[in-house]
Structures are given as structure tokens and as C-alpha cells.
Write a structure and sequence with these properties.
The chain is α+β, with helices and mostly antiparallel strands. It is 21% helix and 43% strand.
């Protein structure tokens, strides 16, 4: 069973200097903040595309240093089963927040990626 990737939906970036990173992505690249709090921000890149900055220490920052790319899928559970069948290792539990669902995974050669299902644009 093959997964049908619909595109890139999200990139996570861990940073030791949250304020400088947030300023760079918003003031230099012109991205807008969709949600923020506790040294973490989700920025809108284009319709259906997000950049999330993780500035506080913790699992989010650890998993996204270096940056992590998420592949947009229709069904995270079905895609996760296909990943395992294809030799990938699932990392941690499936997550969800504010209509988003995701699962980190490691490819057979050790690279970390994520599959993600986003809610429809309003």
C-alpha cells in the first residue's frame, strides 16, 4: 500500500534564540503568525503550509533540530501503518492539536520526518 503525499504542509525549526528567529521569519521573510505562546509560534507560509518555531527546551525543540519536514496526508493512522510496513520506525505517540494530527517517523536510513493531516483552510 502506497501513501499519497499531497505536498509539504509543515516544517519545524528548533532554535536556541527564539526572539531572533521569530523576528527573522516575520520581519525578513514576511510570514504571519497564526498562533504563538510559550516560546513557540506557528507561521503561515502559504495556503496549507506552515513553519513552526520551537524556542523552549523540550520534545518539540529536540525533534526539530535540525528542521523536520512534514508530508501532508489524508489519514495519519493509515499512513503510519504503511510506513511501518515499508520499514520506517514510528517515533513517539501520534499527536493532535487544534485540528492537526501528526506522527513522527524515522526512515530506514535514519532520517526523521513527519506525516501530518491539517484541517481545511477556513
Amino acid at each position: 500500500m502506497a501513501i499519497r503525499v499531497k505536498g509539504f504542509s509543515w516544517v519545524g525549526v528548533g532554535t536556541d534564540d527564539y526572539e531572533t528567529s521569530l523576528r527573522f521569519f516575520t520581519q525578513v521573510l514576511g510570514l504571519t503568525v497564526e498562533a504563538s505562546g510559550d516560546r513557540q509560534a506557528i507561521l503561515r507560509v502559504a495556503p496549507g503550509q506552515q513553519l513552526e518555531i520551537f524556542g523552549r527546551d523540550g520534545r518539540g525543540k529536540d525533534l526539530n533540530t535540525p528542521p523536520t519536514i512534514a508530508f501532508e496526508v489524508d489519514d495519519v493512522d493509515r499512513a503510519a501503518r504503511a510506513l511501518v510496513a515499508g520499514g520506517a520506525e514510528l517515533i513517539g505517540d501520534r499527536g493532535s492539536w487544534n485540528g492537526h494530527e501528526w506522527q513522527y517517523f524515522r526512515t530506514p536510513d535514519g532520517h526523521l520526518f513527519e506525516i501530518k493531516r491539517s484541517p481545511p483552510d477556513p
